[in-house]
Amino acid sequence: MSNLKSRLIQRGSAGGNIVTLVLLVGIIGLGLFLWLGKKGDDSAGSANNSSAPTSQTSPSKAKSNDGDAPAPIEPVTGTPPLDAAATYVPKDNVLQIDISEYAGYGGLIVANGGMEPNPDSIFAKEYGFKVKITKSESETWSALNNGRLAATATTTDSLAVLGRQFDAVVPLQIGYSRGADMVVVDRGVASVNQLAGKVLAASQFNESEFFIRYLAQEAGVPVTVLRDLDSKPSSSELGLVFYDDASIACKAYEHELTGSQRLNGCVGWTPFTDEVVEKSNGAAKVLVSNRNLLVIADVLAVNGGFARANPDMVRGLVHGILEGNRRLRDQQAANIGIVAKAFGWSDADARDELSRVHLANLPENRAFFAGTIDSAGSFGGIFQSSVLAYGSVIRNPTDASRFADVTALDALAKKGLFADQTIAIAPIRSSTQASLEGDPLLSKDIRFFFEANSAKLDKTETKNQEYLDTIKRFLQVSPGSTVLLRGHVDNARVSEFRDQGGEQLVKSMALKAMELSRQRALAVSEALRARHKDIDPSRIEAVGRGWEEPAGPDSELNRRVEVQWFTLE
Predict the structure, then answer these.
(1) Could you give the residue ranges of the DSSP H alpha helices within 220-371?
(2) Taking the model in full, what pTM does it have?
(3) Do the beta carbons of residue 524 and residue 468 sit within 8 Å?
(4) Percent helix, strand, coil in the chain (nearest 5)?
């Protein structure tokens, strides 16, 4: 167009100028028409794409047809695929470890003296290698598996999902998350059981999904995965809709609170969960956090090939992180600045974030992997809970022993290192005990087997012992929690009693039923304390409810002991 314009101007006539003007206007108009048409086509294409969510949707661009609401992603069917396994090879004797922005990994940063390779770090001085710490919020399982990372921080529950394809060694528990993870729900939801028929926003294959699946599993509420917000679960199921990450899941629920209310809550972590509650004007609340529910355990996962070829370096990593944890626990003021600088936080923010973490020491680590820790979830226990919670998603589960390697921990203990440390996990209390006056976190109906017309447990029934262990597990994974055993008996003969002796006989038999149910609840309590002698009796209470609260028309199911679990919040 510029050459045409030049030639016309050179002609210098008035007519030429007019022609020039007409041509310019025409060309500009044609260009504008074509550009607008192209713009319309692009907009239509974008709208079509947004109506079909995909797991590749960028979090910052995730939109739905509902204004600015984040769009759900297409859920992955089965377990997440990983890049092929390969051995990590250090460059210049530097190991690269990836973490997320989380205070629980502060011990590693303190041990390294920051994020960059450091000749004055514990790793360099004691074991002759350096560490470069990188930070990302995306999952790094493939990078670790494929040999692009020496190690990464993850949570125990994810190992069960990754399974045999994940060639990694777990030599260390870094710590427990204590209050960072939360389930936020509509104000009227009082327990996990009441989530049946509801829909929550979450993110797939991480601790947020496991946390809600674990709670639903214990409450006996099946979980179903939904593809979009227009899908609904059955009245007995909890529906999960997935988003790119927990922050987006929380934003999606926040949007629905002021819109069509197709979501009844979200599962995520601070500060996103806190922000939802604060902005809800009382419409949302925290149902439960993991402040006193210790099933989110952070561990160090090391590339399998590298770990097998370099056991001394693995021992150095374990030693260094445990020493960093010790310094951050026992000398917080002197070390908090290193963590704050690494994450771009103020010292006050770093201290606040650290208050939501329990940094593990050596004896806690050994008890965690041995399964003998009595105040939190163990490695094997959490792993198995994850297998059960995910159900058919994990088609061919492996065993926890595939990943755990306590060689480095045993070596440190044998040398007498950290000999002054003890297991020091305690409940974080906002009250003196879990209140039985309010609503339980969840209820679980268990049909213990008793001798006929008796309050004596049937000692030959192996299921009874399994049920006792279930109750023990509640108390174990939640320091300070309490269980209320509510005995129930069958109400099938009420009509018969009424026919035989009227309301007077019904009242008389109701009192006997109340006492029998109470005796059965007490029998469960006594058997529980006999099997697990370390349980504090004050954490168990038993009551009888007779036939007053039938679970339904099934006589067999009404002969039950209901276990209500009250956790500290």
Answers:
(1) 246-257, 272-279, 304-309, 311-330, 332-343, 347-354, 362-370
(2) 0.83
(3) yes
(4) 45, 15, 35
